[in-house]
Amino acid sequence: MTSHERMVSAQEVKQVIFTGDIIEDYPEDKRGHSCLMFGHGENNRPIHVVCSPKKDYLAIITAYVPTTQHWKSDFKTRK
User: Fold this and answer.
1) Which of 7, 11, 20, 55 lies in disulfide reach of 37, CB 3.0 to 4.6 Å?
2) Is the pTM here over 0.85, yes or no?
3) Residue 8, Cβ neighbours under 10 Å: how many?
4) In which order are the strands placed within the sheet that holds 21-26?
């Protein structure tokens, strides 16, 4: 996969936030409570978004395309 193919657009991040599922919760994260969300982006590709709710906004920590190297085929379960 090229670096261009790994790019996640702002629209894809929004789509995951609004329609995806929380698959991991990190209440003790050093940045504050955060979670890992899973959803689908353009062309139904899997996307992970790590975010942290703050008082006035939702902080997006990272967004990436998960791989089967680290995730089972459902992209919700770690290997």
Assistant:
1) 20
2) yes
3) 19
4) 21-26, 34-40, 46-53, 58-64
